[in-house]
Predict the 3D structure of the following.
Amino acid sequence: MFQCQTTFERALTIPGTLPVLAIAAEECGAPRSATRLRRGYQALSNDELDENARRQLLGDLRTTVLNIAKRFGKARFAQIASKHAHLAEEIPSYIRDAVNWLITDEPD
């Protein structure tokens, strides 16, 4: 079984998915949240942030994404985000592991 330790929106919010989530926020009608996600992406790309600052920023961005999804509907937000999945630079490891398990012919 492959699952995340939190709600999907929070688990999906990692640096490499922020461009996707920012576009989805924009399309949902949350331009300020989209700007916050884009700025967060830029800040996380900066190697000068220490680990505590990175963790705090990512936590804030996860809350932003969850709030957007709650406001506009989790399913609707997921559908809009999925249109832009090709822009993701990475995916959460539990999703990658599940996909690899599905396409692998060898049992574990």
Notes: The chain has a mean pLDDT of 91. Residues 51-72 form the longest helix (22 residues). Residues 8-103 form one domain. The chain has six helices and no strands.
